[in-house]
Each structure stands twice: as C-alpha cells, then as structure tokens.
Amino acid sequence: MFGAGGGTSSYQEVEETDLIVLWGSNARETHPIFFHHLLRGVRNGARLYVVDPRRTSSAQWADVWLGIDVGSDISLANAVGREIIHAGLVNETFVRRATTGFEAYAESVEPYTLERAERDTGVPAEVIRALAHDYARADRAQLCWTLGITEHHNATDNVLALINLALLTGHVGRYGSGLVPLRGQNNVQGGGDMGAIPNKLPGFQDVETDLEARARFEAAYGVRLPPKRGWHLSQMLEAMERGELTACYIVGENPVRSEADSHRAARLIGGLRHLVVQDTFLTDTAELAHVVLPATATWCEAEGTVTSSERRVQRVRRALEPPPGVRDDIEIICEIARRLGADWGHPTAQEVWDELRSLSPIHAGMSYRRLEELGGLQWPCYDEQHPGETFLHARLWEEDPARRGRPAPFNPVEFEPPVDELSDEFPIRLTTGRRLDSFNTGVQSGRYETPLRRPECLGLSPEDAARLGLKEGERALVSSRRGSVEAPVHVDPTLRPGLAFLTLHFPEQVATNLLTVDAWDPKSGTAEFKATAVRVERLDGQREMAGAARQARV
Amino acid sequence: MSAVFVGLPRRMVEVTLDGRQTRVPEGSTLLEACRQQGIETPTLCYLENLTPVNVCRVCVVEVEGSRALVPACSRPVEPGMVVHTDSERVRTSRRLVLELLASSVDLSLAGPEVERWMRSYGADPGRFGPPAPPRGAGERDRARAGEHLAPDGASAETVAQPAKVDNQSYVRDYSRCILCYKCVEACGVDAQNTFAIAVAGRGFDARISTEFDVGLPDSACVYCGNCIGVCPTGALMFKSEYDLRRSGAWDESRQTVTTTVCPYCGVGCNLELHVQDNRIVKVTSPLDHDVTRGHLCVKGRFGFPFVQAAPEKDESGLGPAGGE
Known about the structure:
The structure holds 2 protein chains of 2 kinds.
Chain A: H1 11-15, E1 19-23, H2 27-30, H3 32-43, E2 47-51, E3 64-66, H4 73-86, H5 92-98, E4 99-100, H6 102-109, H7 114-121, H8 125-137, E5 141-145, H9 147-150, H10 155-169, E6 178-181, H11 188-193, E7 200-201, E8 205-206, H12 211-221, H13 233-242, E9 247-251, H14 255-258, H15 262-270, E10 274-279, H16 284-287, E11 291-294, E12 304-307, E13 312-316, H17 329-339, H18 349-359, H19 368-374, E14 377-378, H20 401-404, E15 408-409, E16 428-433, E17 458-460, H21 462-468, E18 475-479, E19 484-491, E20 499-503, E21 532-538, H22 543-553
Parallel strand pairs in A: 1-2, 1-5, 2-3, 4-15, 5-6, 9-10, 10-11, 16-20, 17-19
Antiparallel strand pairs in A: 7-8, 12-13, 13-14, 16-21, 17-20, 18-19, 18-21
Chain B: E1 12-17, E2 20-25, H1 30-36, E3 60-63, E4 70-71, E5 82-84, H2 88-104, H3 112-120, E6 170-172, H4 182-187, E7 197-200, E8 207-210, H5 226-230, E9 236-238, H6 239-246, E10 255-261, E11 270-276, E12 279-284, H7 298-302
Parallel strand pairs in B: 1-5
Antiparallel strand pairs in B: 1-2, 3-4, 3-5, 6-9, 7-8, 10-11, 11-12
C-alpha cells in the first residue's frame, strides 16, 4: 500500500478499535487466531460489519451482515464512498493534506447511488448507508479483507476501492485505524518481502525505477541485473501458450492443482521442454517434472524466517531431522548455482539473512539475536535500535509537509461484473472458499485426521436444492463453460438462492478447478476463483453417462 | 502526529506482604505482588492468559480486616493492605484444599510443584479413608442433581472413571479433573468462543461436559485443543501422548521442544513442537507470545502429520466407550 506491500496495522489494534469491517473474509475459519483478536475487539465494544456472499461463521458474530452478490464489491465500496461524501462525513483535513485525486474520485463515484448499488450488489440501500455512516463516524476503524477481495479478475481494483474508503475517512496511519489484508499462507508476505514479485527487489525496491537500489544489488552481487520486470504466474502460463517460455523451475508451489482452469495449467506445464520442481512433496506438478528436487519442510526441518500478515518477521527452526536424500532449499539453490559455474559457498540461513539485511533497508535492524529476544519484529526496522513499526503511514498525519512526504493517491475504479457471466444455461453463481480444518489443495492438511473433516460437497441454498429436486447427500452434476464435476449435495442455509459453494481442498474427490475460470487480474495476476457460472443437475439414471462424459473431457 | 493511546498512568500502591512494605502498580493482583516479592504462591486454576475464576482456592491469603481468606489470583491490591501469605489459617486452608483434591482426583500428572506443595503443607490425602472404587463409563455423567445415596464414610469418594476416547485428536480423562474451569474458559470467552463445554451438575457430581453429554464429534467442539493447552493435570491430552504413555514409551527426557511458526495461514502463530525420536508428539504455543497467547487452531495444533510417516497401527482403537 502506497509503496510497500503489507497490512498497515497489528493484530493488537483490532482489539482496540471502534469498528471492524471484515470484507470478503471468513477469518473465523481461515485465520482463526486473528479472529481471537477480533473477538476481543468485539467484546471491547467494537461494532462488526461482515461483507460476504455467504452468511459465514464469521458473519454470525457480526452486528450487520452484508450478503453481497459475488464480484460486486466495487459497486458497494463506491456507493459507500459516495454516501460518505454526500453526507459530509469526509475527513477533509486528512484528504486535503495527505491525499491527491479527491475530485476525480468524487466524480467517479457519483453514479454509484445507494439505489444503484442495491441493484448491483443485492444489499439493501439502507444497510449500505449504515456501513458508510458507521465507518466514517468511527473514531478508529479496521478494514480487513482476504481472498473474497483478491480472487477476482479485478483484484487490484477491489483493493483500491477499499483503500479509497480509508483515505476518505482518514482510517489509516493511526493506531487502531488501518487496512488489514490477511495473508493466506504462512510466508506469502515473506515471499513478497523477499522480492518474489515480478517488479520488485527484496524490501519492495522497484527493479525498474529505483536505480540506487539496483546499483546496490549489482555492487553486492558483482553482476548486472536485468532492469526490467519479469512475468507473474498468469503471464508465465500465457508465455507457455505462445511457446516463449519452455523451461520452468518451480519451488514449493503446486500450480497444476492451485491454478484456476487446471486443465489448461496441466496441459501447459506438462508440455514444457524442461520442468524442475523443488518441493516437500511429490505434488501433481512434481509428477510432471523432468527433475524433482526433494526439499526440507521449511517450518520444522530448516532454519530461517517467515513474515506474517502483520509484517512480523519470525524465526522458524529445525525441530526434526529431514528424511534421507532431502536437502535444505538454500543448499539446493547453492548447489545448482555451483553447477552453473557460480560458487556461492555453503551459507547458513543466518548468513543469507544478514546479506538480505545489508541490501533491504526495511529489514536492516532485524538481527537473528533481536528476532529471538523480541519474538519477532515488524518491518520497517531500519537499524538495531529501531523497535519496528506497529502500524504504517503515520507520516500522513504529520503537520510538516516535508515530513508528511508523498501524499497517498485516490484511485478511481469502476465496477465490472465477473467475467464468467450468468446465463440461462449457467444460471447459478459458484463461489469457492476454505473450511476450518483444511488448507488449500490439501497437500498438507489432507494428511491429518480430524472429526471436523467432511467429504467435499456442493453447498446449495435450500431454495435451489428444492427447485432442483436435490436432497442432502444426493449427487449432482455441476457444469461450467469449461468442464463438469460430480459432487454430493449439502443443503446449506447460509447460502442465498442462486449461490453455490465448493472448496478447493479435495481435488481427488471434486476437482473444483476444472470449473473455475482462468480470467485473471492483469495488475496482480490473481485468478478469479470466486466467481464461476454453473449449471447444477440431478444425477440419477444418467449418472453412468455423465461419468463417461466427464472422463472424455478431462 | 498521531498519538498512541497508552492508558492512564498507573500509580503505585503500598501494601504489606508478610511484614514487608512493598509498592506495586495499582490494578495488580495480590498474586502478582507476591511473585514480584519472590513469595511462592501455589495456583491450580490460575493461568496468565485466562481470566481468573478463583475456584481452586489453593492460592488463598489472609488480608487483615477481611473475614474470609481471599484468592490472591484475582484480588486487586488496595492501599494499606496488610497481607499474610503463610499464616496458620492460610496453611490450614491450602493443606485442606490439596488433601481434598488429592484424595478424590488422580494428580499423578499434575507436575512436580503439586507434590512439593503437598509436602510443604503437610497434606495427607489418605486420612479420609481408602478411595472408593471407580465409577463405570458415563456413570458420573448421568448423575442427577440432588439425587444422592448418603456416603457411609468408610471410603473416600473419587472421580475415578474410564477415560473418554472418542476421537483421533485428544483424550478426556476426567479421573484427573480438578474442575479448575480453565478448559471452559479457553473454550469460551477467554480465547476460542466456541462454548463446546461447561460445568454440569452440582456439588461432588459437578463435571465438565459437552451439551447433553454427547461425544466430542457430535458436540460443538472445533478441535483447537486450547483446552489441552491450559489443562494443569493431564486430564486433557493429545491422543498421541496418551497412546505413548499407555505403551510406556512416553519419555520427556528424550524430548526436545522447538519454537517455530505454523505452516498454514499467514497469521504467524508460534508453535512449540515437542519431538521424541524425531516424531512430533505434541504441539503447544508460548503463553507469552502476543500473536497466540498460547492458543491455536485445529490446523496448528493437530495438522503436523504431513511431515512424518504414519505411526504404527493404533492398537488402542477408538471404541465408543474407549480407554480404561
């Protein structure tokens, strides 16, 4: 946000705030320990708004639940912005001093009346108005989101629409007020920190525009760095399609399962001239590889650090001896470098980290000793006396323009419905999500048993189930424009008519990603897992036939 | 400039502890004051990450001017308080509490401090007579409030009963339960807010129960295991630990505890991996870490088997009554 990719607040702040908006997040199940902090906030008196197409277990704790139609978030956010402006609730001092582009933003949201947003989103105008007024009037407010915002073809625009609201009301850069994107994996934040983004060097230093940073890296490494951004995953798949990308080295990722439209991902990755996969498991992607490099489980068989959703860098440590033949990621990478003719020696995790600290200013103060003593540190942490930052962007509130620095820009965004349009042939909106006991494609969570585990099933609203003549446990055929899968039906009263739900956890039971669309956000590369148009049919006599048809399509 | 609200400044309060004048921040409890002075105070139901419920009464101290003894764990200091932590009244009360608990509950896994307190307070749990025979599975759970046979005094009543083994994750051995409420607190408002368990029954029949005493898989339980994390007596236990103890293979001297970060979502919960013979046998979280305060979810607590081969065939089975 405004230059650095990380949440602005700490978990502690959600306990000490006045209003919490949980937008496109079922944190009760996907981030349960964050939800502990959130519930403390609720018990301390904060009001909770939950924006989610499903009435999730998170929504059950809300003062107000906004049951939004999938993918209409921008219409809702723009209507909230317009209402704040028209009601005179804009934090004018903050907007004047710390932002740019307010006029253009105000103009862009003008068409988003409450009535229009009600039509776009399915949320009653009065409820949208209540959210606008409560958010704008709150002394402190936390705006939190997860994949419900980002797994869309317009993910970046969705996030910008939320940031605009924080700028409008000054709910950023103060203790208790902030923007909180909850990260889905234990080190996805750390991956970004370390430069695993096409246009960034470690520490969010831009490879194209930050000449000074690039020179620093070039001096340290003694090589010239390509001054151009690379591809993100969705662009890589397109490059494979064009025949431009013919070899891949994939570390700790299972795109054959995790990419939307897995037919296409498997075809493209399986068709590479050379594929190397480095992973803890022989994943479906590794099965296609020419070379598999077995790697340690980084959280318990190796030393290192990971970064959490509150920008906190914490140590992971080796607790188990890895199985024979399995090597540490650092060792593997250095060995490959050696065979390519570069001797990087045999650095320890700490030595690699210290090198990073010498090149990434926001990590400079995070010595292993301090990480141990303090239970982790939150970036930015510029030197060994710096305590780390609890929240970001306090500078926006400085009196002195010089210290206030570059203002934060409003970014007008327009509502675009999901790419996969509903039609008479595909009338039901399928959305995807996670369950408490499981995780992503089940590579990790599939190997422990728990009484919570339920077989994969298609969640249908009671109204749709009745209309389709489907009862609990009966099998249905779910078809999208890309493929069909069979799934048992679960009649779920938390779903509204026209909305169906599947997880991605059990691809061997129901390969959900055969259905999902591979449309992706051109700015971030995330795919639209959350919005698929499907048709649901009863399966009885025609079951054999459908099975055969499905086989033919795989 | 945006200020961080840090609360009102805390004044210092003068109290007299065992004849010594001391100053502690206002709002502190007597327990915190005792600990600051290095005065050991036994506790069973108290834990840093839970709200004190002051039910075990083993931390009681004498406050001059107070008719009854007061629980140190929850009583805030007041200016001029004169407190005795080792008077005859205090010692008698602590001894009796320990005797009643030890005569009725299996405290063998409650840790070495409990044994030490028993010795130092001269507790003799045997003086109430030999223990009554254990109850059958579910017998105590079916007890109805107010319906009692008068005891004959020949033996000491106990809570001995078979362990409840009804799922793959954890075991509830209520013959070890001192009814400290910690699990109820952790399942409830102090952490998890799931409310799967509560205290049912009255008097000596009181016990921890799911709604209508259903098995855990049919209850509201979400298997976060935060109840195990706070249990002081081993009544709640990982199934992996329970099985190893039953086969005699549990050996803490061969275990290492390593702090690392959970491999699942991006919250960054610290895990303490208890490892024996290169296998994870238990997972806890540090009580004093800001992110978890000792509490985890089902994935962090039980989701580790993907890094190790399946254990040898579980021979104890998961029979409906289970255990012994």
